[in-house]
Amino acid sequence: MKKYIIIVALAALALSGCSKDFLEEAPKQSQSDVLTLSTFEGLDAATAGAYGPLASNNWYGADFILSNEMQTMNGKRWTNLSQYISGRYTDEYAVHYTQTGTKPLWGTAYYVILSVNSVLEHLDDAGIEATDQQKNNLKAECLFLRALAHFDLVRTYAQPYNNTLTAESAKLGVPVILTVDAEAKPKRATLVETFAQIEQDLLDAEAAIDPAYVRSGGNNDASKVSIYAIQALLSRVYLYMEKWQEAADYATKVINSGKYTMWTAAQVADGDDCVWREDTRKGGEVIFEVWTNQTQSYGTGNENVWAMTTYLGYGDCGASADLLNLYEAGDARKTLVQSDPDGNGLFTMKYFGKGVGSIDANNIIILRLSEMYLNRAEALLHPGVTVTGASAVTDLATIANNRGATPLSATLANVYLEQAKEFAWEAHLWFDLARTGRPMTRTDVSGTSIPTNIPAGDYRWAMPIANRELTVNPNLIQNDGYNN
Predict the structure, then answer these.
(1) Which of 177, 205, 319, 422 is the least buried, fewest Cβ under 10 Å from its Cβ?
(2) How high is the pLDDT of residue 301?
(3) Containing H/E element for 120?
């Protein structure tokens, strides 16, 4: 198992520690396969441990959200405020990356991929005492996590799925790793191959899982894979692939399940009872999230998403006037963009903490119901897409009416606007701009070197692969624009 990806991933995760998410278990690849993966209980614990790195500061615990938001019109570094200039996220704000200074997701995501691959390869071993459905439930969890990891990797390190660029690297995705004994120095799969595997993993997960299954123990159900999380991620993936009917159909499955309810304007508005500060979810929109608190070593510390986005912490990742100006008076979402107590810099309130420590924590939402309505609205505006009883007009109105906003007419431009308003600071905008071929434009910037326009087709939509990966694996092709 001493493949290059495992070595790099373990080195990266050694800096972050081990998960204590559902069970008091670390991801089990740190132990002997013979001891860990020879029983169903061991496989179950290994699967639980594989969730942990999602909360890493390299992933949803900080960087995946913060870097993507700071690259867009949502983010701003308030350099006029001395307490908010520790130097973090400077390159992200400038969208300036190099082979030695790039996003840290690679090692962490591949660690999860290889962790779940180990479980998948042992589920059918002789001596594993469990029912077929128990095994299939673990299989579904592992396939979902593998799909999510590949999906976040390809969105980060590759150009959009349907780009028309001519550079060789523009048609490449990421290495697709499906076994523990994968090729030691794998090549990057094509974008088509990468997305096809993500799709297949999710379809297989949907077919395998018991619709009633939710992992037992630990935290709220929204932090665990369910059939609805699988279907919701499929809807998003199909949106990226421009499979519009499928995107609409899977969004409808989640909406029609009746499992989730839209938050009201009163629940969304900032305050002590704001849903963004809930510890354990009490119904509502959240389909899948990363649950964290200060007892976990993943995602904790002075550089988590709370510390970076609040004036109570470092505050390097501020919000912009461009974002605030999207909202009309009375829109509850406008209360989630506020100034510091001195009335200077703006900050998002989505990560103001849930009150569990002086260095606070947040549950990081990955999938929620409002996205399903907006996915379906976008899909329905493409020729030939139909869903019985649904329309883009009513889906847009569902969002607006529950936010205290004016419903918009059914155009793609208005869907994009509603997505920008709804998902600000949830790591959507950068990827949505990329997949729809729109430029990133902003006016409220600090510093003359900060780009105000990144056009469609620019090399910066794909981040560079780290030099250390290229060194150990000469089969990797660097993204265009980063070879010097």
Answers:
(1) 422
(2) 63
(3) helix 105-122
